[in-house]
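hey so u asked for the seq, here:
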Amino acid sequence: MRYIIVGIAIGILLLVAIIISCKVISKNNNKTKLATINSNDKKVKISLPSNIKFVVNKDDKNYNLNIVSSDLQMLIYCNEQKSSSEKPLIDIVNLDQTDFTAKKENVKIITSPSKIELNNYEAFMYSFSYTDPTYAEDFFSEVIWIKNNDTFYVLNIEIVLSNYENNKDLINSIINSFTII
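ran it, structure tokens below
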């Protein structure tokens, strides 16, 4: 009788272990695979989910990175600027926000420039929304300035405002994946 009870207990434990391991395997298989995109000049890279269609414009001479997702209505740009000023980065970013937003329509400042942690680089970020007359849509724009020695990288992620809430985590993931090569 004792052997039957021990056998049933072992059988139940094995069944529980199998169920738990199947759930863990299933959860790991659901992780999104990432594709690494290098800039045209091979100086920076970001990671994007491979299950979302992104188109990379390699012919754009104005940006190191120029990536578009029609599905998400998202634009990702990055350009490089050499520092010709001894001003602190926060002053440069404040000036950029003033100049950049002055060129847009219906601007609503969401966040003022603030320091962020980004892969051990000095970085500042600000965000705003605006109306783009070309698309007749409101956009959300996240602008991140990253300093590397005497070079600044400006990463700009824009998405149609109505898609922003559902893609906040993706935008943060893209920002956090930014790497200077």
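The first strand starts at residue 34 and ends at 38. Residues 2-29 form the longest helix (28 residues).
lmk if thats what u needed
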